[in-house]
């Protein structure tokens, strides 16, 4: 018995030592971002708040017509978020900017899925219902989805919505980047096509970054010197230019590291070669054996 | 039989007259419509001037209001309609805008690099389809129109900034809407118009047509200071 226990400890010790010596991860975390994705550049200084993008989005994606399509009088009084009925919404913000007559100037900001380069939702999805496509689209496959809604928790922009009203076939709802259109030659998302002022510029992400830098350089007074989405959470396919601070138009300050980097590194280092469960159960086994040893002598003495 | 043929023969010119009366179209409107259908070759390179030097250039070239060759444009380009067609075309009074703005460089902000080209070109020569990957910083024609018009209308606090302010609305047949006596006098006609178009009536009171002063493209260069009249002393200056 004692030999067995000693033998057991020996084996466990050796196993633990070998795992401890070995580097915890086989390889460092690597970005899985597509090399040349499409993107959109939203220029908030150009947006006039006509909400045509909402209308076009609903039409292209077969969603119900947006609330008060042709009337902008009261719709902006509430702060709206994309939901199961709308992949994109435009909000109005008064940021303290005034014109030459001291009249407050509104800034309109469209919000939709940012199609991150390294999406947290894709990383969080346990069944692979969400994937990052070569075109840059974060695609959703309803046939795989089990409705766990981890994507909704993971998204740093709080974009995915859920059809709570539909108990039988609920879907996660978020911007599709009009995949069916942009995957075809010359295709443009519905919102970018309809935008009257080209506040939404569609193109390759690299090209858009150049365009954005050119605009910042040529009009330094018009813009803040920052491209939102160039580096936020490792870069996003949708990027913003603004003349007012981004936090004020509901674009939160986010770290430059992609969200999946931390979570995946933790996960991968914990579970490489199953060292952590082996160690855990080894220690538990050891403790059990030790307590058994302590318990046994009085039993023997009593007998 | 001959009588019948005679009657028919007599009726033909009358019927033809009725038909032509129905299809009569305003010649300037038709001309503008034809012009709107044209597309011009894309200008790839432009001379990158700042607005001030551009303005000086245009002044040096001696371009004035008299050089405005087209008074009226219908903005209905097939370049825009190719992608989407949601709104009716915009009627753009070119000469009137030129007279009001009095600075051609506001819209004709760049010129083609080709020295032989005209100093002023159409919008659609440089601004064509949106999101051209070869010229990513060049905005499309629709965005060029909207940015240019809306920005100026906002800055000058003049001119419409809403959709239907510029885009033609679908006009219903007024034959059904307006009921007038057989031989109406002008006052009756105006009254019938104002029954629905009261805001237009009030707007009209702010124009040169009513005030007898203010810019008008047709009187440029022929304007004289008017001491009397509706705009000043309300004395009739006939």
Compact summary:
The complex is a heterodimer of chains A (303) and B (238). By secondary structure, chain A is an alpha+beta fold.
Word description of this protein:
The complex is a heterodimer of chains A (303) and B (238). Chain A is an alpha+beta fold and 303 residues long. Chain A has helices at residues 2-21, 52-60, 120-124, 150-154, 179-182, 190-194, 205-218, 259-271, 275-302, and strands at 38-43, 89-98, 104-111, 130-132, 138-140, 161-162, 172-173, 200-204, 238-241. Helices cover 34% and strands 14% of the residues of chain A. The longest helix of chain A is centred in the C-terminal third of the chain and has 28 residues, at 275-302. Residues 18-25 of chain A have low confidence and may be disordered. Chain B has 238 residues and is mainly α. Classes of the chains: A alpha+beta (303), B mainly alpha (238). The A-B interface holds A 46, 48, 50, 188, 192-198, 201-204, 207-208, 210-211, 214-215 and B 83-84, 86, 130-131, 133, 136-137, 139-140, 142-143, 146-147, 150, 161, 163.
**What is the SS-derived class of chain A?**
alpha+beta
* Major sheet: arrangement of strands of chain A: 8-1-9
Main sheet characteristics of chain B: 2 strands, antiparallel
Question: Helicity of chain A, in percent?
Answer: 25-40%
| Overall 3D shape of chain A | elongated
Helix segment tally of chain B:
12
- SSE string of chain A: HEHEEHEEHEEHHEHEHH
The most extensive interface, with participating residues per chain, is:
A-B, 21 and 17 residues
Give me the secondary-structure category of chain B: mainly alpha
Strand composition percent of chain B: 5-15%
Gross morphology of chain B is: globular
């Amino acid at each position: 018995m004692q030999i067995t226990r000693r033998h057991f400890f020996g084996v466990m010790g050796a196993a633990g030592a070998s795992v401890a010596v070995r580097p915890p991860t086989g390889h460092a975390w690597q970005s899985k971002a597509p090399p040349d994705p499409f993107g959109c550049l939203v220029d908030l200084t150009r947006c006039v708040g006509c909400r045509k993008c909402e209308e076009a989005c609903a039409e292209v994606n077969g969603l119900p017509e947006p609330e008060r399509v042709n009337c902008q009088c009261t719709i902006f009084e509430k702060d709206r978020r994309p939901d199961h009925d709308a992949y994109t919404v435009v909000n109005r913000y008064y940021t303290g900017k005034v014109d030459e007559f001291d009249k407050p100037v509104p800034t309109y900001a469209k919000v939709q899925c940012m199609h991150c380069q390294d999406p947290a939702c894709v990383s969080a999805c346990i069944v692979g219902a969400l994937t990052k496509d070569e075109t840059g689209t974060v695609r959703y496959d309803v046939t795989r989805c089990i409705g766990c809604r981890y994507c909704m928790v993971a998204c740093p922009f709080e974009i995915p919505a859920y059809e709570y009203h539909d108990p039988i076939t609920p879907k996660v709802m978020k911007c599709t980047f009009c995949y069916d259109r942009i995957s075809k030659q010359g295709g443009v998302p519905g919102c970018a096509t309809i935008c009257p002022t080209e506040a939404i510029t569609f193109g390759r992400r690299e090209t858009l970054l150049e365009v954005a830098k050119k605009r910042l350089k040529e009009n330094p007074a018009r813009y803040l010197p920052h491209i939102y989405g160039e580096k936020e959470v490792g870069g996003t396919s949708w990027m913003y230019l603004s003349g007012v601070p981004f936090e004020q138009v509901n674009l939160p300050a986010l770290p430059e590291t992609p969200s999946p980097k931390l979570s995946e590194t933790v996960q991968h280092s914990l579970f490489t070669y199953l060292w952590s469960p082996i160690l855990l159960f080894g220690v538990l086994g050891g403790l059990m054996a030790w307590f058994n040893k302590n318990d046994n002598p009085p039993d023997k003495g009593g007998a | 039989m001959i009588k019948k043929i005679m009657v028919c023969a007599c009726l033909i010119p009358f019927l033809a007259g009725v038909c032509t009366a129905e299809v009569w179209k305003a010649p300037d409107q038709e001309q503008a419509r034809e012009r709107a259908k044209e597309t011009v070759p894309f200008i790839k390179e432009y001379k990158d001037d700042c607005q001030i030097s551009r303005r000086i250039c245009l002044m040096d070239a001696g371009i004035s209001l008299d050089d405005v060759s087209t008074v009226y444009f219908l903005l209905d380009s097939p370049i825009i309609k190719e992608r989407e067609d949601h709104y009716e075309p915009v009627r753009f009074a070119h000469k009137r805008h030129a007279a009001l703005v009095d600075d051609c460089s506001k819209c004709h902000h760049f010129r083609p690099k080709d020295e032989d080209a005209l100093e002023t070109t159409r919008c659609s020569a440089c601004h064509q389809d949106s999101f051209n990957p070869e010229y990513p910083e060049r905005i499309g024609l629709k965005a060029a129109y909207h940015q240019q018009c809306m920005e100026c209308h906002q800055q000058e606090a003049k001119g419409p900034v809403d959709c239907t302010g510029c885009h033609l609305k679908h006009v219903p047949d007024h034959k059904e809407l307006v009921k007038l006596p057989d031989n109406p006098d002008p006052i009756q006609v105006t009254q019938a118009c104002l029954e629905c178009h009261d805001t237009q009536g009030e707007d009209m009171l702010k124009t040169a047509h009513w005030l007898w002063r203010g810019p008008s493209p047709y009187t440029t260069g022929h304007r004289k200071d008017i001491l009397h009249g509706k705009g000043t002393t309300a004395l009739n200056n006939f």
